[in-house]
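Lab notebook, bench 4. Still working through the backlog of constructs that have no structural model yet. Next entry is a single chain of 167 residues. Request: give me the structure tokens for it.
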Amino acid sequence: MKRLLLATSALAAIFAVAATSASAGNSAAVYQSGYYNSGSFLQNGHYNRGTLRTAGYANYSRAVQAGRWNYLYQQQLGSRNRALTDQYGDSNYAVTGQQGSRNDAATYQTGRSNISGIAQIGTNHRALTDQSGFSNAAAIIQVGNGQNAEMHQAGDGNVGVIIQGGD
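Model written out:
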């Protein structure tokens, strides 16, 4: 748990320079624990805030945000969980943190000046970040063995980094 918080905090610190605080538009939060849960929400507009937190086994969470200056945080503890983030617009921010084994995380962002971070602690995780537009930034940090990370960026002035460490 401490390593997940540390990795998620590290991602937040990396991107804090680019993040701008603003008054929130809409806010949504989903908290679930157990097995085979599914949680999702859709937010349209600007300055939205979203949180999805799940703990357990084989849970699925999905968030879709369309607009500008939206913020999304997903956290999953356990095994075989899946987290999906879709953001459309400019200056959006998404962070996903997972701890356990065999978890999947995917973030899709379309627009400019978007920021994405995925932190995974444990074994056999898969992470995917796909960004189209320009001036976007993304990071995937994985700690443990058997990890798989992919990053796709289309456009100009994008920055991406993948950091993987065993044990």
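Notes after review: The two ends are 15 Å apart (CA to CA). The chain has a mean pLDDT of 89. Flag for follow-up if needed.
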